[in-house]
């Protein structure tokens, strides 16, 4: 079944939905930087931080909706001179990653601000075929906040 995917601002999502999402151990399994429990204060700080990126760069992470239901968050966040793409889905939406990423990458290709996209994946991620099919190339292993990540790059221009 194909889902209607749309992007919205994170502030439109009920904070409790984000707390539940980010508290699921299946989500945490692939997020080495997720080291503490999520509560009202954590989600408030998260939303404030993500909104600050929108204010600074005119782009940031979205709430991801499938048929109007919140299924995760992700999008583009500027890290130095690079636009990094991230996607954090609820477990029941794990199978939508390729469809969501395809729509996001189409957005990046159409946006003149984004000449290329980077992807930082934890080494625990083993299924990387979709990334290769998109045309992303492995750059190498990098460290971010003291944790190892696999870095890929996709030219969009």
How would you summarize this macromolecular structure in one to three sentences?
The protein is α+β, with helices and mostly antiparallel strands and 157 residues long. 32% of the residues lie in helices and 34% in strands.
Walk me through the structure.
By secondary structure, the protein is an alpha+beta fold. The protein has a domain at 5-113: Gcn5-related N-acetyltransferase (GNAT) (Aminopeptidase, 3-Layer(aba) Sandwich). It is 32% helix and 34% strand. It is built from 5 helices and 7 strands. It has helices at residues 15-22, 25-28, 40-57, 97-110, 129-134; strands at residues 5-9, 61-66, 69-79, 82-89, 116-121, 137-144, 147-155. Strands 1-2-3-4-5-7-6 form a 7-stranded mixed sheet, with helices on both faces. The termini are far apart. The mean pLDDT is 92.
What key attributes describe this structure?
single chain; alpha+beta; Aminopeptidase; seven-stranded mixed β-sheet; 7 strands
Strand content: 25-35%
Counted beta strands: 7
Shape: globular
* CATH class type of one domain: Alpha Beta
Number of helices: 5
In helices, the fraction of residues equals 25-40%
Oligomer: single chain
Low-confidence stretches: none
Alpha-carbon distance between the termini? 31 Å
What would the average pLDDT be, to the nearest integer? 92
Largest sheet: 7 strands, mixed
The CATH topology name of one domain reads Aminopeptidase
Radius of gyration: 15 Å
């Amino acid at each position: 079944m194909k889902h209607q995917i749309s992007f919205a601002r994170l502030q439109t999502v009920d904070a409790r939905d984000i707390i539940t999402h980010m508290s699921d151990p299946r989500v945490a399994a692939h997020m080495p930087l997720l080291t503490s429990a999520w509560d009202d204060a954590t989600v408030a700080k998260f939303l404030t931080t993500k909104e600050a990126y929108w204010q600074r760069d005119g782009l940031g992470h979205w709430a991801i909706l499938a048929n109007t239901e919140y299924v995760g968050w992700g999008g583009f966040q500027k890290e130095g001179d690079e636009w990094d793409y991230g996607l954090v889905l609820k477990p029941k939406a794990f199978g939508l990653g390729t469809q969501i990423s395809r729509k996001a990458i189409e957005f990046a290709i159409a946006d003149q601000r984004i000449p290329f996209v980077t992807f930082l994946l934890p080494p625990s991620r083993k299924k990387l075929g979709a990334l290769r099919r998109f045309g992303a190339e492995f750059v190498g292993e990098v460290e971010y906040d003291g944790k190892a990540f696999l870095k890929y790059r996709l030219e969009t221009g």
